[in-house]
């Protein structure tokens, strides 16, 4: 029987840094088995929203749930143990370790956190489980051939895939991905997007994606939320949201070229389906 995976529910979350309201009463739902986009200009509050979900910063008000599990009041490790995984804007790989060691470490830490003296003893059978999950994730990301390479020797594109493999090898029930395609060229980005689509279709895990690459957003997210100055200014199906005057205005002068490229890729996709 496959387990039912949760949606992420953010309900009226506000985060303040002194007098600055970085996130203001943000409410969103990101369902299981889909990639939901969270976009907005620089400084709009996207990463802070992720930080509030994972417990890195306290929310002044509001609530975060994974399905029926309330995450409020827990620290970062407990929220991860409840199933909320995350990748960071800046890559957090261990450069002196091999690719497979990096990926296995993610799984090992997750499993160890769930039992007493977990970091000291690895029960028989668990090592095989960890290796199997890591091998599966490397294959899904198309990097099995890099398993024994040292992470620090890899290109940015390869390192992004290792980071993704580590996140998907770990048995999280929902993933927050913060600009995961940053530094990739268009070909690598397209491949990366396809891996994400295959992953959610195959495993049913939900993803909330923060991303500046609008061509990627428009090709893999069916629904997006748009933040500006900490507030949600729009939500809706991707094509509609990216064409919305209020969204265009928020991006004007900052990322209008990014939206142009998104519009081109939406037009291209529509033409291909016609
Ligand atoms: N720890 C902090 N202390 C004070 N201000 C902060 C802190 N973290 C973020 N901010 C401020 O909160 C606002 C939202 O920042 P945040 O990093 O969430 O934006 P973002 O949408 O993720 O931006 P970007 O796309 O550039 O990563 C910004 O004005 C930022 O300067």
TrEMBL record:
Mind telling me which InterPro entries this protein's record contains?
A: AAA+_ATPase, ABC_AA/LPS_Transport, ABC_transporter-like_ATP-bd, P-loop_NTPase
Q: Which Pfam families match?
A: ABC_tran (PF00005)
Give the Gene3D superfamilies listed for this entry. P-loop containing nucleotide triphosphate hydrolases (3.40.50.300)
Q: Domain ABC transporter: where? A: 8-254
KW tRNA processing (keyword) present = no
Per its UniProt record, what SUPFAM superfamilies does this chain match? P-loop containing nucleoside triphosphate hydrolases
Question: What keywords sit in the KW lines?
Answer: ATP-binding, Nucleotide-binding, Transport
Query: Is Nucleotidyltransferase set as a keyword in this record?
Result: no
Q: What is this protein called?
A: ABC transporter domain-containing protein
Q: Which organism is it from?
A: Sporichthya brevicatena
């Amino acid at each position: 029987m496959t387990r039912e995976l949760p949606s992420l529910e953010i309900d009226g979350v506000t985060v303040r840094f002194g007098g600055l309201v970085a996130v203001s009463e943000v409410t969103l739902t990101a369902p299981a088995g889909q990639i939901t986009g969270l976009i907005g200009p620089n400084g709009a509050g996207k990463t802070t929203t992720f930080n509030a979900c994972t417990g890195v910063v306290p929310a002044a008000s509001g609530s975060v749930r994974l399905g029926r599990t309330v995450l409020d009041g827990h620290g970062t490790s407990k929220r991860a143990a409840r199933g909320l995984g995350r990748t960071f804007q800046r890559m957090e790989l261990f450069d002196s370790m091999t690719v497979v060691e990096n990926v296995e470490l993610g799984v090992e830490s997750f499993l160890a956190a769930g039992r007493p003296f977990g970091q000291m003893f690895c029960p028989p059978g668990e090592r095989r489980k960890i290796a199997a999950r890591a091998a599966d994730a490397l294959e899904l990301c198309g990097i099995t051939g890099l398993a024994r390479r040292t992470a620090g020797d890899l290109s940015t594109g390869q390192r992004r895939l290792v980071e993704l493999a580590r996140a998907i090898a770990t048995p999280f029930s929902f993933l927050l991905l913060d600009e995961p395609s940053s530094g990739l060229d268009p070909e690598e980005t397209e491949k990366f997007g396809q891996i994400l689509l295959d992953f959610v279709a195959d495993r049913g895990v939900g993803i909330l994606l923060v991303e500046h690459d609008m061509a990627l957003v428009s090709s893999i997210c069916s629904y997006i939320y748009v933040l500006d100055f900490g507030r949600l200014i729009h939500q809706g199906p991707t094509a509609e949201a990216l064409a919305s005057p209020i969204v265009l205005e928020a991006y004007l002068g900052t990322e209008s070229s990014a939206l142009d490229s998104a519009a081109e890729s939406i037009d291209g996709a529509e033409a291909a389906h016609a």
